[in-house]
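I have been asked to look over a protein record a colleague put together. Alongside the sequence sits a line of tokens, each denoting a local backbone shape. I have pasted the whole thing underneath without changing anything:
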Amino acid sequence: MGADFFLGEVVLELLKELAKLCVRACYVKSSAEQFKHSIDALLPIIQEIQYSGVELPQHRQSQLDELAQKLRHGLDLVRRASSSSRWNVYKNIQLAKQMEKVDKSVSGYMKWMQAHVMADVHHVRVGVLEYGEKVERIGRKLEECIGAVKLGEGNRKFAFDDGEENDGVGVLEGFGMRFGLEKVKEMLLTADGEGEKKVRVVGVCGIGGSGKTTLVKKLCQDFQIRSHFENRVIFETVSQSPNVESLRAKIWEQITGNRFGSANDQIPQWMVRFEQSIRRPTLVVLDDIWSLSVLEQLISKIPGCITLAVSRFKYPVFDQTYEVELMGEEEALSLFCLAAFQQQSIPPTADKKLVNQVVAECKGLPLALKVIGASLRNRPPLAWVSAKNRLSRGESISETHEANFFERMAISIECLDPKVQECFLDLGSFPEDKKIPLDVLINMWVEMHDLDEEDAFVVLGDLSEKNLLSHVQEDAQGRAGDIYSSYSEFSVAQHDVLRDLALHMCNRENVNRRKRLIMARREDGLPKDWQRNKDKPFDARIVSIHTGEMKESDWFLMNFPNTEVLILRFSSSTYFLPPFIELMPKLKSLILVNYGASSAVLHNLSVFDSLDSLKSLWLEKIIVPHLRRTTVPLPSLRKISLVLCEVTKSLNGSSANLPCIFPCLSHLTIDHCIDLTKLPPTICGVRSLESLSITNCHNLCELPSELGQLNSLQILRLYACPALKKLPQAICGLKKLKYLDIYQCINLRNLPDGMGQLISLEKIDMRECSLIRNLPGSAMSLRSLDRVICDEEIGFLWKEASKALPELRVQVAEKCFTLNWLME
């Protein structure tokens, strides 16, 4: 008995060590990203000390030179780690060890640096005051970096969207923000999370647009917070209508690393022992809380876990609370000028008195300062006077004067170009604090406002410049603007207050007369005012509905003669499509999004029989219905997007004639459909197809030999399909193919021998295809090839090929340091 117990303990310890090694290997890219962030902050400071003009002792200069060299070596390790395949466990472990060695060495330097450098400065400060003050300032910068260069195994927890609320404090961090950061930081660092009865909840409160989320996100980046919680920082946006069970399960999984349904599920005792032996402090940030009951359900009672809740309201469960203060006069003026003039002060050519009057009417709200400032950028003086007069007619902004706040903000929208204004109001059709797929948005604008895709993209830029939406991905606007880019790769976000503003402006008219009929999330059917007015036609061009499970009896008939876009959002494993779809003769875009834990089965599919005008269909987390020979054609359908769907049962073994059902289909996107193992040959019969995107389908291992039949295909994306080992030779028959994307097809071993037949091919993206070591000889015949993006290992071969292809540009891929891959 004793020997068995001892053996069990030894095995448990070995499992612990193995787990730690696996964690280091799996998350080497996240550690590398963090290490790069710290080096990027530290290296310029070291260089500024070196070249500050203060003559430090020779041995100090040598030590600084050696430290700078170590930091540059660290950057080289980061580059190698970022390009390493996540499946190369041995290499990743070695890189992690090397980075930790550099980290430890740098940390040793950091211990002595500030004290010794400041001591040296003290000796030269008399008589050289300006240099002394300069190095003293550098020393303060250095103090902020001490402790920041720490690699952590739990870095996967530090992941949140960069594209959401950002009130410009990253550029302009005033006293109010610094005070708030220090105050909340003190609360968190002194909080006691030990013991089930000592769970601490810290609250950050303030009115909408006051910068709560900005403050908290900046706090999550603070090196002291990251160090204290060992980089175990979880950030989740809750919003007004959350799926609480799904959020609880997600938070529980991130805290424990276990895929159990919720925190209440039974966990094996051996796993509890294992977790307790390695548990460390964890910070759970819950942003945009609207309900005390929701907050109480999401507060984790795991020992060592502290909850930071962000809300417009102060709740009794808060042990400590920080109420966000509005900006002072100087801060407000600087932020406003940054938005209006792209500098932090009033330019000489502007009317100083008028600018100050407009700033004063924004009442210190960062969001109002940003949006109103951006709306007046490059506007004539009369527009400024008009804005000031309209703002001055409002009352003071506070929680009890929300309507007046919206009326103030509305002036920023009403001065937009009419089509841009309409596009902004369309954003209210999507749920608060959710990513909005750019593909959905662009399609909607194209159908609704008679815009070309290029014009719709320009509108996106206009709204972004006016601070009315933000891009979730870094440099999304630039990359999405690439001629071969897929909009489905990108998404945008909108501040919840701006969504409220859009709804406020949309709901000014009677329910039957509104252009946009938008329903917030409900679990118990449709709004009563819709039912009361169902006998009259609804004029809405956009209808957006958010529910739980819907059965046939939950719907009632409504007449929508003008509706062009229908957005159905729900959380359920089964969903009965609304019968009134048959009363939407002009419907052009149908979007079905399931937020439930499992894919949903659709019922009442007969409504599709009446959709003769439908042009685009977006299905997310849906079990795609089986297609039969009797399926009624959709004559106008051009775009189908299947995201996180189950598609195999529908596509494989289907007896349907796809070219007959989809006679005009030009774009097919299949993304994150993990059950897809083989692309069925029936798709190759859709000769009208111009773009085929199969992305993030990790089990796709085979493409049909009939692929060459797609004689209209111009774009073929096979991004992030790691199980795909070869491309069929038939791909060489795609005479109109202009773009081939095989990025992150890590097991692809070669390019087709006859690829020189792709006479129209202009661009290839083959980053992270590390097993491709040679190019086919026919590659020299790709006369239209203009650009190849690849890694260093294959880049030299393409550069050799460029001697025969003078127009070819070979772009060796820049390494991308993000945590996005952790969220796949």
In short: The chain has a mean pLDDT of 76.
